[in-house]
Amino acid sequence: MVRNEYDFSKGKRGAVVASPGKTRITIMLDDDLIEFFRNKAETQGTGYQTMINASLRASVADAQGKSTEEKPLTVASLRKVLREELHQ
């Protein structure tokens, strides 16, 4: 049944599910950068925004002299490890 009117007076704007530790922002990036990360993300089986975040995190860690040993596990990296292990 469809109502003629709905009451949104108590509605809230924004994401339905909050992401703890993350902040939604609007950022302007060059088209070629977005295309690079989208293509790379598609081949590695991850999200392009996740890859951009990881690149920024690695840059910050490098600037602070820290290591970025922990990288997110992607489908492509898992396949690579499995292939290496199976060939041994």
How would you describe this protein?
With 88 residues, this protein is mainly alpha-helical. Helix content is 48%, strand content 0%.
**Rounded radius of gyration (Å):** 20 Å
How would you classify the helix and strand content by structural class? mainly alpha
Q: Report low-confidence residues grouped into runs of 5 or more.
A: none
Main pleated-sheet profile: none
Count of runs of 4 or more consecutive helical residues? 3
> What is the general shape?
elongated
Mean pLDDT: 85
| Percent of residues in β-strands | under 5%
Helix content range: 40-55%
Tell how many strands the DSSP assignment holds: 0
In N-to-C order, the SSE pattern is HHH
Q: What distance lies between the first and last C-alpha atoms, to the nearest angstrom?
A: 63 Å
Give descriptors for this structure:
88 residues; single chain; mainly alpha; 48% helix
Concise overview:
The chain is an all-alpha fold and 88 residues long.
Topology, pairings included?
Elements: H1 31-44, H2 48-63, H3 75-86
